[in-house]
């Protein structure tokens, strides 16, 4: 019996006669991080919309575990500069959330200091953590993260990916993530799905990095990027500055399927 949280079977999406997604097969298990990579226009955002139920496939099926709780983190949040909205008020837009719960979620992502700040005043790294806290407030079984390190510097990106891995470990949730950051994401994911309207290849990172379809899409240099592992003995704060911490090492979990072509 399948333990999957979501499963896409032969999903096709067509806009104005053009195939945006073609025969997509995808599943996410509890505790598994699955990362979608692919060039602009590959259909990554369309696939996320199908997973969230915001878009109905032209054909094929999207199965979700009954009563599945999904926490969604969008690429970015657009807030009117004149809107008086603090981080706390933003988080309390999630039904049933009080200050204590909002503070606990912010602490979990290392952003408790901004709880009373206007959302317009927080930095890029802080905002991504606030959005992650908001997703966690839904007590998700599945986290869907669309470009979670958007607008964050490289040092902050590594720490955010490390944080996502720790949250997965702590909560046992599945993670479906969209990313362009090959050199960082390949060391913090269990399975990579290389998308270009169809699944070009999929599997654990070291399998995919040698796949001809991956090399064709991202170039030969991507192979060295793909097997880069981020080892460090420090952490970064919200602004990317180094703070001392015990050895923090992101590593690859070998867990996936063989490459397939479609």
Folded structure, characterized:
The protein is α/β, with parallel strands linked by helices. The protein is built from nine helices and eleven strands. It has helices at 44-52, 87-91, 99-108, 124-136, 154-171, 182-185, 205-209, 212-218, 221-226, and strands at residues 6-15, 18-28, 33-37, 59-64, 70-73, 142-146, 174-178, 191-195, 199-203, 231-236, 242-249. The longest helix is centred in the middle third of the chain and has 18 residues, at 154-171. The radius of gyration is 18 Å and the shape is globular. The two termini are 26 Å apart.
| Percentage of residues in DSSP E strands | 25-35%
Task: Give the SSE order as H and E letters.
Answer: EEEHEEHHHEHEHEEHHHEE
Relative helix content: 25-40%
Q: Estimate the global geometry from the Cα principal axes.
A: globular
Low-confidence stretches: 223-237, 239-262
Mean pLDDT: 80
Number of strands: 11
Radius of gyration in whole Å, from Cα? 18 Å
Numbering strands along the chain, what is their spatial order in the largest sheet? 5-6-7-3-8-9
Question: Could you describe the largest sheet, including whether it forms a barrel?
Answer: 6 strands, mixed
Q: For the terminal residues, how far apart are their CA atoms?
A: 26 Å
The total count of helices amounts to 9
Q: Class by helix and strand content? A: alpha/beta
